[in-house]
Amino acid sequence: MIAQKDTIGLTDLFASRRYFRKFEGIMAHMTRVAGVMEAEGTLSRGEVTILVGYASALNYTFKALSLKYLLVGRDTGRFFGSLSIDASESGFPAADELITMSSDAQQAEKHLRGMPSVEELKAQMVHVILDDRTVPTKLQFALSQRLYYEELLRGTLFWPRNDPAIEWQRNIDQRRQFRMHWAVYDSQVNLPVIYMMDLEDSGRIALPKDQRRWPEVQAHLMAQSLGGLKLMTIAKGFDEDFNDLHPKRLRRFHVGPMYSDAFTRQSGPIGDVLSQARAPDGQDWALVWTEEDLQSDRVVEERVGWFSSVEREIFKLDPFAGRGADTGTTRMERSIILPQRPYQVLEELNPPGFRSVAKFVVSDAGRVLRY
User: Measured between alpha carbons, how far is 150 from 145 in angstroms, rounded to an integer?
Assistant: First the structure.
């Protein structure tokens, strides 16, 4: 592993495979935590389904990248690089990895047409092993790349941009209520970010079927999906640009950072926790999960032109210590997901910044406890 820069390359084969195994386990724990939040009433069934869908997409993305770099550090006959991860800020792969993967997906069919099939490659490997008595590294590399492109063609991965999808909820007072969700991989912090918006539609044609408004809404939301923008800014801009769409609630979920004593450089309390825990491989990590929530408080009428008016949302800000104006949210909640041993050290150290953080303690057996 090269550790001179914030973004490092996992050039060691075994380190790379440990990294992918770690994230496979973390994504599985994340779906279980979402289930606990549903049981507690923090999230609804529909919201959990959306979040689990994005967690599954992240898992497929990690699977694809693990195939791409399956032979990292081996002599494959060509320089292929190594997985770049953000070792100081997020612990996730650098955004450039997903951008390259998205480009590869567009060329996947062409690459596969020029490659031998899986069966042919395996037959060639057997021939090299039995006749030449050597390790067929180059053929293994070719097979890993074929499997990588096949995985990309299956779709359902987490891309740099995951455009809005919309789900009908109910009709109330002759208005349609929808829930939209979309996601991005924030290139500024190298983290996946998931958005949900609950809105009312007073338009003549239902939003998903409206060939004029729906493309405009999708383009508008993707352009505004920047981590540096406050939810208040995004919601007010949407409210003002679409007179017959009324955003009632906007949420943003930040998945990460992921901290690991083996792969990231962290300072402060979380660094002390992981270094003192001395947890075995697979349990030396902690994942931060942050939810921002902005809710409409009331509606006011605003004149548009000479003879008409439209509704505008007045959003409720967090009243405590003026934080709402700073964060642009009604509520912000941070959680941390971590295995048992790091949690025990966290409780012993009891750092001030973690006292108000919800803690989800997970085990390999699938058990989740909230503290």
Answer: 9
